[in-house]
Amino acid sequence: MVLSFAANKEKEYFIENLVMLTGAGMDIVSALDIIRSDIKTPSLKSLLQHLRDTIARGEPIYRALDATGLFKPHVISLIYLGEKSGRLFENLSVISTQQKKERIFQSKLRSALMYPAFILSVAGIVGVGVAWFILPNLASVFSQMKLTLPLITKVLIAVGLFLKSYGIIAIPSTLILGAGLAYVIFFYPKTRWIGQRLILSSPGIGPLIRQVELARIGYIVGTLLKAGVQITDTLQSLHDTAAFYQYQSFYCFLKKNVEAGESLKNCFAAYPKSVSLIPRPIQQMIVAGEQSGRLPET
Known about the structure:
Layout: H1 5-23, H2 28-38, H3 42-56, H4 61-68, H5 73-85, H6 88-144, H7 151-186, H8 192-201, H9 205-226, H10 231-241, H11 245-259, H12 264-270, H13 274-277, H14 280-292
């Protein structure tokens, strides 16, 4: 289920208040009744009513929440273990804390990208305007001057003359083609791995993505292992929640080899270019944690 921005904000409100109300000793059905009364988004309000009715019929909480599609697999795993072990409140608190961290990070990221996105948009509009309206006039002036022009100037003159005759077709066609190409490279499910590879290879954004992924690994693996989840199920959760194809393939490789009895040290060594995904110092820390039995803390 795809939620709007407002619904996503209310989803965070839902978890935070569920933690508060269950921590005060209220049963989850009554807590859902109270939370639902404050929800404004109709789709989420209806979903919470269905969730409340499902749990009231005796369905396990984790299974009812999983059916809503609101939460990622590692969150459902935490809720399942909390319900099974009687530590539901504690695990919900962990989920709430992490959602706050993710919300703060996403807010900072949006703020950081807002200015360059605005500058690039303005530059693009100005560039199209210059190419469409000014360059053809400059091309006419230069073409009347009997001068020996540099190659770049000649190319600009040719572009200007072309746009003067076919700009009404060429500019919109170029924009549509560019938008279609961007969709194919970055959004189409079967080919977006190309765009993901380009992003990971870019000088500025690539390192940021890797740092975010390392932080996510630390949170998910540490939290799930401390809660008693098996390492193979933890790696499956990493695979299910990873946004980049390269990391999904890496986690799938780790899971298969760990199930076969291999250590994480051997898995890191056997996977091509694993250092480009997880830096060697971090790999060494993980291996040391595995060998000492302190992997969750590491």
